[in-house]
Design a protein that fits this description.
The complex is a heterotrimer. Chain B is built from 5 helices and no strands. By secondary structure, chain B is an all-alpha fold. The longest helix of chain C is centred in the C-terminal third of the chain and has 14 residues. In chain C, a hairpin with a 2-residue loop joins strand 1 and strand 2. About 28% of the residues of chain C have low confidence. The chains are: A alpha+beta, B mainly alpha, C alpha+beta.
Chain lengths: 258, 104, 175
């Protein structure tokens, strides 16, 4: 795939309400991708696209670029709601941003902003402490324990028996994980406006969820997560990231010419 | 990247190989790409977790993260190529029609 | 590959910044970049049809992280891990060698102490670490840690001068 490396383009970070970015408000003091261009806004009506100049349409997946993207959005999020764009969205020019994104998408964008108004995204991933998990399964499930003991005493263990034990264990892991996940969700969803549960990424993960939380509820949400972490210390591991702009709660896409 | 080559030959070869067969190839390829991507994301999470509990040094983490990002980069490019190789809507409909006609 | 985020693993890194209390640390999106990569790359506003492979007449394939599918290998590992829960929970020495995780699952794929002992007994002239490595096809650090445990328990001894391991003929105390 050919890339137009030398043609200047406009990188789009997100779309925010125009109000906090109109003339008279302080400019955004955060460097754009590549570190050399200023982050600025393109305003149309009540919408402001947050953009910066980049040397070409191809922005590689490198840590520096990803960090720049995220930092810009975090800076915007400090002062305003913002709908984040997926990493790597580059328009040919400011005009394209104004016409294709802001003008054509005006109503949808306003709707989306209305939906996430005053909220941030908080991400929670929960993992098992593996030792604890297997100990609990052996304690709680008679069949697993019996099979375990039978295998230990048998001089020639076939892989078929081990497979059976493994499958039984796996089924138990599914049940226990679902139960724990429900427990965590029951507690956390009380402080959230919306939530999105995604598939678990590896075999020790039991929950992978994004929460849309009102800014004034963020402290309470923190408390709930910390409380769960302490209550489950040594048994569950919590990975907690935020606040983020509401990536997971966006329901629109612009069809391009591909 | 055999499937992309295959797809580019679509206008010529569809009547010979069958439209449905090529569609299935495309879908298999898409599944494979998405699985690869899922695996790469899973490895990134695993990397981050192991780093945060101290199982990896800063250098190890930085190096492995860079490798995973590189892998993701290639996967994304391949996905873009896969999409670009698709004929547009009208062409697809034409092939589907052709296929049906031939089955009769 | 066994996965474990056991916090008892050797730590040597400073805690990250951010609000925290005991067990959970809250990280910002930039400091927790790897954790939010899935979201930054696959969610948010998407500007073109590249994220979706759409095939007319058949279902639209959107990007979805494929959930982990258990395999035969997974089942066998689980069986081993459950097997290990039968052992008395005698804690192993904290640091047996560079990079050795102290969690149970790290010893899952490889020979047991009994198997190593059997090999030692079959070769009374003494066995080198490299021989064991070649025979069992497992990695060095894992073998070293098991052997260190066996020396500690008294079931094996190391002739340091010639780097040979011998069985002692003494049954280890706890089994």
């Amino acid at each position: 795939m050919n890339t137009l490396v030398s043609q200047p383009a406009t990188y789009v970070y997100g779309v925010a309400p125009a109000e906090p970015f109109r003339d008279g408000h302080p400019p955004l003091r955060v460097p754009g991708i590549g570190g050399r261009s200023a982050v600025r806004t393109i305003v149309l009506g009540d919408l402001a696209a947050v953009v910066s100049d980049v040397p070409g349409v191809d922005i590689g997946l490198r840590r520096e670029n990803l960090l720049d993207h995220q930092r810009v959005l975090e800076e915007v999020l400090r002062r305003s709601d913002v709908l984040p764009f997926s990493f790597g969205t580059v328009a040919g020019s400011d005009e394209e941003v104004r016409d294709v994104l802001l003008r054509d998408g005006y109503d949808s964008l306003l709707d989306q902003l209305g939906y996430v108004q005053g909220c941030v995204e908080l991400e929670v991933k929960v993992f098992w402490e593996q030792q604890r998990l297997f100990q609990e399964i052996a304690q709680e499930n008679d069949e697993v324990r019996a099979l375990r003991d039978a295998i230990a005493e048998a001089p020639d263990v076939t892989s078929a028996e081990k497979l059976t034990l493994g499958q039984l264990t796996e089924a138990e892991i599914e049940i226990k994980s679902a139960w724990e996940a429900d427990g965590v969700l029951d507690i956390l969803e009380q402080h959230a406006v919306d939530l999105l549960v995604s598939p678990n990424l590896n075999e020790t993960m039991l929950l992978n969820a994004a929460f849309l939380v009102a800014r004034e509820q963020e402290g309470e949400f923190d408390g709930a997560v910390f409380g769960l972490g302490e209550a489950q210390a040594g048994r569950l591991i919590f990975n907690y990231v935020g606040p983020l702009p509401p990536y997971s709660f966006i329901n629109l896409a612009f069809e391009g010419d591909g | 990247m055999g499937t992309i080559g295959t797809l580019l030959l679509l206008p010529v070869m569809a009547p010979v190989w069958g439209f449905r067969f090529l569609l299935e190839r495309l879908r298999d390829e898409a599944d494979a790409v998405l699985r690869d991507e899922g695996r790469a994301f899973a490895e990134l999470i695993d990397l981050s977790m192991r780093h945060s509990v101290g199982q990896l040094s800063e250098e190890e983490y930085a190096q492995q993260e860079a490798e995973l990002l590189e892998r993701l980069n290639s996967i994304r490019e391949y996905r873009h190529d896969l999409l670009r190789a698709q004929p547009d809507e009208e062409e697809w409909l034409a092939y589907a029609q052709q296929d049906e006609n031939e089955e009769e | 590959m066994a996965i474990s985020y056991d916090r008892r693993a050797p730590a040597g890194r400073p805690q990250q910044n951010g609000a925290s209390r005991a067990s959970v640390q809250k990280m910002g999106g930039a400091s927790g970049l790897a954790d939010v990569l899935t979201v930054i790359l696959e969610k948010g506003i998407v500007v073109d049809a590249w994220v979706r492979l759409s095939i007319i007449g058949i279902e639209i394939l959107t990007l979805e992280i494929r959930a982990v599918i258990a395999s035969v290998d997974t089942y066998l590992r689980y069986a081993e891990a459950i097997g290990l829960t039968a052992l008395a929970a005698a804690p192993r020495p904290e640091q047996l060698g560079q990079g050795v995780a102290t969690d149970l699952l790290s010893t899952v794929t490889g020979p047991s102490e009994d198997e190593i002992l059997a090999y030692l007994e079959a070769h009374p002239d003494g066995v080198r670490l490299s021989e064991l490595q070649a025979y069992f096809g497992t990695d060095r650090t894992r073998l070293e840690s098991l052997l260190a445990q066996m020396v500690h328990d008294g079931s094996a001894q190391l002739d340091a001068q010639q780097s040979l391991y011998h069985p002692t003929g003494v049954q280890p105390a706890t089994r």
